[in-house]
Write a structure and sequence with these properties.
Blueprint: E1 7-11, E2 15-17, E3 23-27, E4 34-42, E5 48-56, E6 63-64, E7 72-73, H1 82-85, E8 88-89, E9 105-113, E10 119-128, E11 135-141, E12 144-150, E13 159-163, E14 165-166, E15 169-170, H2 173-179, E16 184-188, E17 203-204, H3 205-217, E18 226-231, H4 233-244, E19 248-254, E20 265-267, E21 270-272, E22 283-284, E23 290-291, E24 317-323, H5 331-344, E25 350-355, E26 372-375, E27 380-383, H6 388-410, H7 415-420
């Protein structure tokens, strides 16, 4: 059979938003013949991510990854989006990086003969971050640095501060994809972006207070309160904001620590010192990676309470997402302690979503899994834990939970606004 008759389809369209699933389908194959599907993308650092899976054409000469099982490769079984979530970096210990969301992420899909290795067909999936009409504003308002996303439509919309700054500076994917759902989202930078210090010596909570005040004052934002979305180290800052600042209604902490870490936190005349890591608790794995899971000292001990945030002062609702195989720190234990603290003060304002085999980084759906990587605070490569499939399933579930949580506590996006989106 001529290769020209073989068609690789990405349905419903080759263009979609990053958090949307697609259907990969092959037609025109020789029935029952093996075929290999490969996926590839290049991130903003130039790191190549790849996955592959072996399939067998059915009696009609088709492979539909939504129905057919992978027989080997990066994953096995029926995994409609396996070619996306199973992608791994060619450069070890690299985390997928997408900073600026004005351009899409391009995922190349290739089909090769399982017998000869010849290329049979190829197509590119253009995975975008912003819907048509989204307004992206590079922000420099007073001291505030970041990027503001405003959905199309008349508004007003619920407002959310997204705290996602890693060692490489501000990243925008999560903020933009959440804004697509009908929220005004401020991706707030707090170090390593524009002229913000790359290695700050303290956390200045009044900077974050200025950001909350600014967002609440935008004419497109409806009140009375806003939401906060955080992950990892920024979860501590989210808890500090929720404890001390007004105008916050809902806070999401993904694999967060309940104490201050790294550097002192200042707010007016209050100083909260950081926990000091216990270096002898850091282990080296058989593969030579550092396991820092037990590096932070016991936060239940009296001598460490000075570093805890007074979350009992908070008036917002909390959603803690925790991965039980998080090796960055004991996020499940921290969530348990947070819940106990709030309940001991008569507050039932916390929900905890637990993911047994997931690792530290729970991202937006279909983002490549990051089991290990360079940790800026440690200055070395560490393990983050988790299994790729379980992590992918956790990301899907959490993304829906986050939207439902904000909808419940910030107010729903009206149907008329959704239609405009």
């Amino acid at each position: 059979m001529a290769y020209s008759q073989i068609r690789l389809k990405i349905l419903p369209s080759v263009r979609c938003l990053f958090d949307k699933p697609v259907q990969v389908k092959l037609e025109g194959l020789i029935p029952h013949k093996p075929v290999e599907l490969r996926s590839k993308l290049i991130d903003d650092r130039g790191v190549i991510f790849k996955a592959s899976a072996l399939y067998k054409a059915d009696e009609t000469g088709q492979v539909d990854v939504c129905r057919a099982p992978s027989l080997g490769g990066s994953y096995t079984g029926v995994e409609p989006m396996g070619l996306f979530w199973a992608m791994a970096p060619e450069t070890p210990h690299s985390k997928f990086l997408k900073k600026n969301v004005l351009s899409p992420t391009l995922v190349e899909i290739e089909a090769l003969s399982g017998d000869t290795g010849h290329l049979l067909a190829s197509e590119t999936n253009e995975r975008r971050y912003m819907k048509e009409g989204m307004n992206r504003i590079l922000l420099q308002e007073g001291r505030i640095k970041g990027v503001l996303f405003i959905p199309p439509g008349n508004g007003p919309f619920p407002g959310i501060v997204d705290l996602y700054t890693l060692g490489g500076g501000l990243t925008e994917p999560r903020a933009s994809l959440l804004a697509n759902k009908g929220y005004v989202v401020l991706a707030l930078a707090y170090y390593g972006f524009q002229d913000l210090p790359k290695n700050p010596t303290k956390w200045d909570l009044e900077y974050f207070e200025e950001a909350v005040t600014y967002l609440r004052g935008r004419p497109e934002v409806k009140g009375p309160g806003i939401g906060i979305l955080s992950i990892s180290q920024s979860g501590s800052l989210a808890l500090a904001m929720s404890s001390f600042l007004s105008g916050i209604s809902a806070t999401v902490c993904v694999n967060a620590c309940i104490a201050n870490i790294l550097i002192p936190l200042h707010y007016k005349d209050i100083v909260i010192p950081p926990l000091s890591p216990v270096m002898e608790n850091i282990k080296i794995t058989e593969s030579g990676l550092l396991d820092i899971r037990n590096a932070l000292p016991d936060t239940s001990l009296e001598k460490n309470r000075v570093s805890l945030f007074p979350i009992e002062r908070a008036s917002c609702q909390f959603l803690f997402a925790v991965s039980e195989d998080d090796h960055n720190w004991k996020s499940a234990l921290f969530a348990k302690q947070a819940a106990a603290t709030l309940r001991n003060h008569g507050k039932e304002c916390i929900k905890v979503a637990t993911y047994p085999k997931a690792g530290h980084f729970l991202e937006v759906p279909y983002m490549p899994f990051c089991p290990s990587g360079f940790h800026a605070a440690v200055g070395n490569v560490v393990m983050f834990g988790g299994e790729a499939k379980a992590n992918s399933e956790a990301q899907l579930d959490l993304w829906e939970r986050v939207q439902e949580f904000f909808k419940s506590h910030l107010g729903p996006v009206s149907e008329s606004r959704l239609n405009k989106l």
